[in-house]
Amino acid sequence: MSYTIEGETGPWEVVIGLEVHAQVTSHAKLFSGAATAFGAEPNSQVSFVDAGFPGMLPVINEACIAQAVRTGLGLNAEIHLWSRFDRKNYFYADLPQGYQISQYAHPIVGKGEVEVTLADGSTKTIGITRLHLEQDAGKSLHDQHPTKSFIDLNRSGVALMEIVSEPDMRSPEEAGAYLAKLRQIMRYLGTCDGNMDEGSMRADVNVSVRKAGEGFRTRCEVKNVNSIRFVMQAVEAEARRQIEVWESGGTVEQETRLFDTARGVTRSMRSKEDAHDYRYFPDPDLPPLVLEQSWVEQLKASLPELPDQRRARYVAMGLSPYDAHVLTIERETATFFETVAKGRDAKVAANWVTGDFFAALNRLKRDISDPPVTAEHLGELLDLLADKTLSGALAKQVFEAMIETGQAPSVIVEERGLRQVTDTGAIEAAVDAIMAANADKVAEYRSGKEKLFGFFVGQTMKAMAGKGNPALVNEVLKKKLA
Amino acid sequence: MRPTDLTLAEGLEALDKREISAVELTQSFLDAIERLNPRLNAYITVTGEAALADAAASDARRAKGEARALDGIPLGIKDLFCTEGTRTTAGSNILGGFVPPYESTVSANLKRDGAVFLGKLNLDEFAMGSSNQTSAFGPVENPWSRANDPEKRLVPGGSSGGSAAAVAARLAMGATATDTGGSIRQPAAFCGIAGIKPTYGRCSRWGIVAFASSLDQAGPVARTVEDNAILLRSMAGHDPKDSTSANLPVPDFQAAVGRGVKGLRIGVPAEYRLDGLAPEIAALWDQGLDWLRAEGAEIVPISLPHAQYALPTYYVVAPAEASSNLARYDGVRFGLRENGSDLKDLYERTRARGFGAEVRRRIMIGTYVLSAGYYDAYYLKAQKVRALIRRDFELAWGKVDAIVTPATPSAAFAMDEKQDDPVTMYLNDVFTVTANLAGLPGLAVPAGLDGQGLPLGLQVIGRAFDEETVFAVGGAIERAAGFTAKPGMMA
After folding, report:
1. Most buried among A287, B368, B415, B435, using CB within 10 Å?
2. Are residues B182 and B169 in contact, defined by beta-carbon separation less than 8 angstroms?
């Protein structure tokens, strides 16, 4: 089912390409030893290199290079053993050197691809054009003083990966799924934390529209969109705007726009005519970056299992594709699940994690990184179910107690005497007592009102404080009521 | 003999023999500076107190038998090297009263070895110039003058004009300098002293105010070839803070100076016989080759066919890099700030007021050659020619061990000459720029006087990281030339 937008002149197709800026997870900046922690006091993480002082020189941080290569490998992309840093010259108050060091002509990572899964279960492959490294600029603060702007250079020099896609996406959903997939891969790899609200990941969205069968029309770039939801909204808003322009007889001009999240529309930022002449040239302070194939192989060998591989493995373990998908969205969730499932029935483990456990997370508004019960305890709970110490109903009860107390399930079972009763004698005694107290109902049942069976089960379980083994209770009742 | 007349090597010996103390030596240079600097304008900043304190510390080390390689030697530092706690101007108004909180690697290496810094030496603004007349702190005067016109004030060359003039006039035993297109060798030749631009990557560029990063290289100037060798040994070395710094051991350059040239093949590039080359320069060149032949070297004619494009190539590459390197002087974080109505206005006012005419000219040339639509025609083309110039040398090294040429196309000119036409001024670098474009070491040695009694120099170019052969050839020329002439103005 392809996505189109209905205009006055009929359906329009949307063409989308994304440029994602992802902050490299690293302790130090791309070309200086300064720290990169988020939320530090303004200008507390700035070296003389980052501030562009006279005579300061950049030195490549090898850890950032490794992260870019790992990301490239995670995107099934070509790793370029020879790459180069260029200077992109322009003036701005928060650009201390007067240029940004960026890989313009020769990026470290070339063509690759990722597969995204859409809501209807279908998959689509999105091409990656390139991934290059560059340094971030500082931040201008215009609201701290009535007449002055302040500048925070903490981000100046922080390593970014710019991941450029092919114009392969055709709907807001695909754009959202692509962004979510990139984020997922990088979080698995530990190369970008993907915290869009902290600015560690942001996207420039290229949008154009066309009629079926046409070539590409003029595109516009919507700059710096900082959530998946906003990317999807920006695509739709910009596509609708362009359709209106075309249908009213106008021409879409290539330009850079901003997405106004409050009003849900895009507005012009600058047109191509007054765009900067950036004046690129190879940075003479940095020799070309030459990588050893063996080093790349080493990185490749040490990559963690990626979400697609992990999902396939879960399906092979007997999980439904849906459960496998849900459990692998976040690496932490998958790790949690694997701890729970280790040496146990994977399907039961998956049911508990995606069922009661996820429900608890939601209810308590907690995160997988801060779970209300540990994976180890949940695993023990499954053991108690498997060895019939607990019935399903009792297990749910114990689970709630685990959330409340943080105690191990075995402790809760012991302290509260929640062990299920499998002693047939005790069950028979309880059944006898219920039948004696409800002689009228017994008679009704025996005269054919079979619906009453449930009533007897309920009464027996209630009398046994929920601890009766449900199967045995059924069995005894069937025999005695017959 | 006055202490200021000692060469650096002699100074070290005198200090070792306790014939003089570092404090006495430093004081004689400070006295000389006080007397002569008002006329020569070689120093922008004199750090007398710190120098005397450092000299006293040096004497204490020597007394304990802990003297280092340069202990107690008074040096001048080109004001392009950032010096911690001492104003660093780069000869420009735009740096205002900039006091770096850090020390350049090269000057730190010299300090590590016990050198005493007398102060910061004048230079062309941001090292852009061949006469030291573009300095915002006024021109430096060459201590030499013409025999037939002693009143005419001459330029010391540039950009390291302050460094060369100070050493020639005995206002320092040696000095740091930098060379982007000839800024060590040309002023050394004009002032009758020696100076070496080492191989690109031999000295760290960290903490040196950048002009054109792919060409800039620090080196020493001093009165003798040997003194240069001693200084370079301390200045050089791998620096992890400079990605272009070579990770190679630093040889004992001093030992190479007396090595001799027997069996060496000395190349003479045909293309350097420029039309209209001054007969005196041509004669000196021939004389130098004769000396080397007499010492056992073989003279081999070679061809550097792309050398003729070196100057235009240089004047594309250097301004391109400079326009980028100088973008950081924007009035936002340090140095001069001229307030404006908005950010763009602040930039424009600050940069218009802070940069002198020559710097503005080169920034505009550089911006132009890098701009969209012109990049391929100028910058890219220049890079291709640069590669060809490098290849010329690669091919030459198959035939020869070193190349000898004149250092400059003329002797020092007067302050009021060559003012109008920047292109004429740029021709000063015609013999020196190729070494920068190819990253090779080049040494200027005083070899004789012209008809008016002004010094002329020869240049020795060597293979990359083979400064030892360059010093050997330079040492041989120096011995044969027996250059003993002295400038008129001297401490």
Report:
1. B435
2. no
Is the dihedral angle over the CA atoms A426, A427, A433, A436 positive or is it negative? negative
Beta bridge partners of B121: B43, B78
Count Cβ neighbours within 10 Å for each residue of B29-65 and write b for 16 or more, e otherwise: bbebbeebbeebbbbbbbbbebbbebbebbbeebeee
**ipTM of predicted complex:** 0.95
Contact A279 B210 (CB under 8 A): no
pTM confidence score? 0.90
- Contact check, Cβ <8 Å, A98/B213: no
Question: What residue has token string 């950081």?
Answer: B328
Give backbone dihedrals phi and psi of A48, rounded to 5 degrees, phi first.
Answer: -65, -25
**Nearest alpha-carbon partner for B281 in B470, B149, B447:** B447
Q: What angle do CA A124, A125, A129 make, to 5 degrees?
A: 145
Is some CB atom of chain A closer than 8 A to the CB atom of B84? no
Catalytic annotation present for B323: no
Q: Do the Cβ atoms of B324 and A87 come within 8 Å?
A: yes
**Sign of the alpha-carbon dihedral angle for B241, B242, B248, B252:** negative
Residue pair A112/A72 in contact (Cβ under 8 Å)? The answer is: yes
| Contact (Cβ atoms closer than 8 angstroms) between residue B453 and residue B147 | yes
- Confidence class of residue A37 from pLDDT cuts 50, 70 and 90? confident
| Residue B85 to chain A, least CA–CA distance (Å) | 14
Distance (Å, whole) CA A112 – CA A309: 17
- Whole-Å CA distances, B105 to B71, B207, B329: 18, 6, 22
User: B76 has which bridge partners?
Assistant: B119, B175
Closest CA to B134 of B334, B406, B426: B426
Counted residue by residue, chain A has a size of: 482
- Measured between its terminal Cα atoms, the distance across chain B in Å is 12
Nearest chain B residue (CA) to A153: B333
Residue appearing with tokens 């990301």:
A71
Cα distance from B441 to chain A (closest Cα, Å)?
19
Of B28, B159, B234, B323, which one is the catalytic site residue? B159
Q: How confident is the model at residue A464 (pLDDT cuts 50, 70, 90)?
A: confident
> Is residue B86 predicted with pLDDT exceeding 90?
yes
The pair of structure tokens assigned to B51 is 């120098």
Q: Give the residue from B89, B112, B116 showing the smallest Cα distance to B33.
A: B116
Out of B21, B28, B58, B78, the active site residue is B78
Region A79-100: mean pLDDT is 96
As beta bridge partners, residue A210 has: A13
Q: Tell me, what's the pLDDT at A388? A: 84
